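Hey, can you fold this one?
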Amino acid sequence: MLRLEVIALCLLFGALTHGQTPECKQEEDCNIDVYFTIDTSETIALQLSPPGELVNKIKNFVEEFALRLNDEEYRGVVSLKWQVGGLHFSQEQRVFSKIGPRDDFITGLKSINYLGEGTYIDCALKKTVEEMKSSSKQNATRFAIVITDGHITGSPCGSFKLSEENIHVFAVAASRNIDAEGLDEIASTPLSVYRRNFSAVDLSHSTDLQVDTIDHIIKTMKHLAYAQCYKVTCVGTPGPLGPKGHRGQKGAKGDNGEPGQKGVTGRPGDPGIEGPIGQPGVKGQPGLKGDKGEYGTPGKKGTAGFAGRNGTEGQKGKLGRIGVPGCKGDPGDRGPDGHPGDVGDPGRPGIAGNKGDPGRPGRSGPTGPTGEQGPKGDIGSSGLPGVPGLKGNPGVPGNDGPRGEPGRRGDYGPKGGQGQDGVKGEKGEMGPEGMRGLPGESGNKGGKGDNGLPGPRGPPGTSGESGKNGTRGDPGDAGPRGVPGQPGPKGDPGRPGFSYPGPRGPSGERGDKGNRGPRGGRGDCGQKGTPGVKGNKGDKGGPGSAGEPGLRGPRGDEGSDGDAGPMGDPGLTECDVMNYIRETCGCCDCEKQCGALDIVFVIDSSESVGQTNFTLEKNFVINTINRMGSIAKDPQANTGLRVGVVQYSHLGTFEAIKLDDPKIDSLSSFKEAVKRLEWIAGGTWTPSALNFTYQLIRDSPRARANVTVVVVTDGRYDPKDDDNQLASLCSDPRVDVRAIGVGDMFEKDQDSETLQSITCYNPGHVMGMRRFADLVAEEFIDELESVLCPDPVIVCPDLPCKTEPAVASCVQRPVDVIFLLDGSEMTGPENHRQARQFIENVAHRLTLASGMSDEKNTRFALVQYGSSTEQKVEFPLTSNLTVISEALANMRHVYSSSVVGSAIIHAVNNVVFESGFQSGVRLARRNAELAFVFITDGITSSKDLDEGTSAMRRVEGVPTVIAMGTDTDEEMLRKIALGDTSAIFRGNDYQMLNKAAFFERFIRWIC
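Sure. Predicted structure:
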């Protein structure tokens, strides 16, 4: 119809302009270029078995998509002409079709084979822009269809948005295993048009291709192209005004107009239906107290009435909360006794008036006849607490006497007689009065019963119970130092002490004599030295300075022998001294030796493992070697432990810590080397990695050493690799291979057939687990320890310790640390302050990220928690030291109960993610380890704990528990630490947090 109208309008203009023929173009060519950007990285290739099956399904989806892009006339005014091109990508980009005809595109599409390495989406988008600019027509409407799972392993090309290049980008999920935030960042805006939960394949249905996604995107592209291509198609010379034309198409919706004038008041509406019964109203304010009535004239004595009925019992008021006990007030002064009143004749009962104020108590009158028991009166309100008494003046402190310089200790003298008891010291000053607690809420008063007839006056009541003692106040400030007492008698000579040489510091370069330096770090124990030459006997010490002589008294009579004194404390035994030395100096502990043993760990560093799981693999290696004793000083020696590590991804990316590396001569140097390993994030070439490991073992043999290889993998590998190399380690009888199969990032079980091939089909050599977090569980490492070192020899040194070895410096790896601080009442204000100081010290010590885009170094967040509804994010993930310091300074103690499970859920929903896990907006860095650090006294509720630990596992959090105190719930701590007891740091009190030894150990752990 519209087409006929356009032609008629053109003819009419021609007639009116005296034969001037206008140009009338009936249809406008609308060129549309569509470019497919397809992810064929490892996270796509390994989602279905056999590897690459999901890529084949995506190819089928794209082919079906292209077959539906047919040239056509659209709405009778534009002619749609399609051209298609595409590339697929992983860490590299491969163009399989330039922008051109559909048939050429489909031919190129069928030649795709997956790449199977990491995902560099930014480089793929950059390449897409280059291809579309070089191949597209100038006036074409350009669309890009990006098919990926949203997972990103790196951004070497920087952030890139196609929408800035005038390209409309649709983000299509490869399947349902996606990173929603990553897909949202790719799509153009609004997301309701360009993202809309599009997916290419649905693995849960038999008809897995998502045809609805194809139809919806094509419909949207046609509409957008029409809006860009359609223009006025008739052009002619101006002529005279023609007749009125037909009614035009409906115009676009106009802007909102100005508000109109107020309309006429409408008639009253019909009565509505009866509404529901409303909620009870708020309790009204009590009415004003009425004026006291005048006294009535005394009535004549009447006849005794019948006993009145007991009034109905009022409703019991709600039980108010128990308030904090107030301070005990001083007893008030006793008031004067009242004058005795005359006993009058009882009058007739008068009309009941308002209840009068209580009168002053009078003296007891003569005992009257016992009357009938009256009704029970209302319970009187509790009296107000007494006014606190004034604080007494402190006593005047005595003046400090001059302190004499200590003299050199003299020889032991003869035992003196028992001296007189010293004067008992004065009682210290009472501490300041504690703050008064808030009063509890008053319960609602019950309704008053009916008034009964007044009974005779009862005897005076007994005195009330004395008030309960108030709560104990905080300890007072330390009083002034007292006057020194008289010197006591000389004690008995003590037992001779044990003489042990002190620690020897490391020798430095010879230079000028400097100030005394701090104590050096602890070194490894040296070999036992030969006995030293006995030293010469020292000079006799001089006598100590004599005291002031007293006045000589008259010689007294010789007294009788006194009673035997109490038995003294036993001195330290040799065992006590050695235990103290071992507790103080860790290198004096007994050590386990496993003989000549070579251990090689082979760990998967591919894209499908992920950054956090790769960190867990490294922690597993370190925790296991901690159980094996010390590492051989000389890697060429025939005895001792040597350790190697191979991390692998695709071919050409293998890295190794070699068995015979001369730099690996201690446990600390090995840990430092392991921490320096970085996630490769490529493909999975397990067979080639095992062949590489065999070459490593073959090139560094030891004659009598057993070799154990521990392979950590999910069992899946790229089929482009040579699977004959899976048995590379089976040709050497000295090598014992153990495989640990872990479920992958798609929560699929490990491939058992591949794991059996790796272990040379030895039964019992495959260990399976569901998640990477189970690698660091204490029970699993115990099991592996018994396999690696079945017959250990325990050797205990008999020498004192040398200095502690130097600590390996922190590696600037990316870590997002979330502190969860127990703010319960049991923590106390002083412990709370110590914990805040500890957090600030950690922030000052570690290297902070330079900004939100920094992919290295550390960021911090703090959540304080109490009950299940009391959690507060004191500061979100940040690297701004000023923000951290100010938040800690303004932080207030919660003073509540302790529920750690709810705190974990709150941290995941408000620190790791912006508005909950379901939102998909992740605030924590994807490439950073996510560390949850709990500071608690170990006493907490188990409510929501299972849900909290599940949430922590779901975001791949790595827990560390700092348990302060001796009364801790060990089972609760293990649950919070996800079974990794090596991640539990203990201290007797919160002061341990900021002591050097504890602090440095935590820094080494977290960095």
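The mean pLDDT is 73. Let me know if you want another pass with a different chain boundary.
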